[in-house]
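Sanity check

After download, print the first record. It should look like this:
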Amino acid sequence: MRSRSLRSRLFVVTVVGAAMVVGACTPPKKATPPPPPKPASPLPPAGTSGFAFPKGVSANHRYLVDQAGKPYLVVGDSPQCMSTNLSTTDMDFFFADRRARSFNVAWVNLLCGTYTRGRADATTYDGIKPFTTAGDLATPNPAYFARMDTMVQLAAKHGITLFLDPAETGSFRDLLKSNGTAKSQAYGTYLGNRYKSMPNIVWMLGNDYQPDQWAPYDPYETALSRGIRAADPAKIQTIELTPESTSYTDPTWPPLVNLASAYTYEPTYDVVLDAYTKAPTQPVFMVEANYEFENLTGGPTTTDETLRRQEYWTMLSGATGQLYGNAYTWGLNDPAWKQHFDTTAAGQFGRMAQLFSARRWQDLVPDRSHTFATGGLGTYASSGDVLESDYATAAITADGALGMVYIPTARTVTINTARLKAGWTARWFDPTNGAVRAASAPYTTPGANAAGQSDWVLLFEAPGSAA
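Expected structure tokens:
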């Protein structure tokens, strides 16, 4: 099958979906909707001093900003089933490690079913159920949500923002439907109230949310979103739809979210640029692309080179950041996950983040018209395997103080230096180890990088390029 999600989708729909429906409460005979969950006391902030968390969007709606109004670059991992498959000790270990490697975001599902390698009854590894009455959103289990509170606070302690999915649609869309819109909205209100005081949460709905599901399930997903928004209107919301899509693909969602997503296993520049050009203008991030240690496109297992390409293509196509993923750590159900945790690819992802965060990445404008990088760009591909695309993405700030070109294969590129600000210098940046060397025209890639491959970043900087 095509992806980590679609490989298991048929099994999940017939087994997990059925399990959740069987466990749901029998609908009442009367028309009166069941009572909503009891209001929760807001979770007090803990250990957040000194860390930046996304607070809103920029004035031009191109990037996220933190509490101080400064640009917030999303540098994320995807431990989706952390909530139920890890102890709090291992949660703390995970967050501490990722923070030390320049990560600042983690995608976690608040409920975890078999679709994301949890259990059919959505319990934690040590048997705590999310609801005191199986399948009833109106009965949140205090013990379960106390565990989730600890997870949120541990993330905050390490400066990690959780992109928190309240009921990911791979496992729980039928749960929402069986509960109805009133209960779905009330569950959202419960969550919004519970985590209203925590600054390190972005609410992310969906997850492999397919086009044939939108009509039957959007009423319940949107009710959940509205419930969160009613209780906590300040929190950023986003949604992941289907592979090879953006959050604009289902027209229901752009009015409800304020952070656009892009999702693809093919060349990432295509979907990011698609979202970048859509209205209403929203910051866009790459929610999911090829994961390390997986075979997502029918070819060989994803390589470090594949990951670098999709990461730099994403950043030079106007994104406010992206999430990395790992076959061992998105489900966290394999005891060997720590042996596949601090990989070369994860280190290169952090190195990419350091390169951009030290510079005015938020002001880079994708060079879609090729007026900055004018030749040697290869062929733009809207589909196909990542390693089969040789397209070079470029971006430059409006004042010409910063220009960057990611060149995936050996060649000479032509640069219109008239677009650069006076006093510029050019350097080659090795994306595999972070080394730099001087560059001059003709701009021909300088042989093999430290990993023995041929991708390089061509970096132009003038006074005023630094963050």
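If your output differs, re-run the checksum step. Summary of this record's structure: DSSP finds nine helices and 21 strands in the chain.
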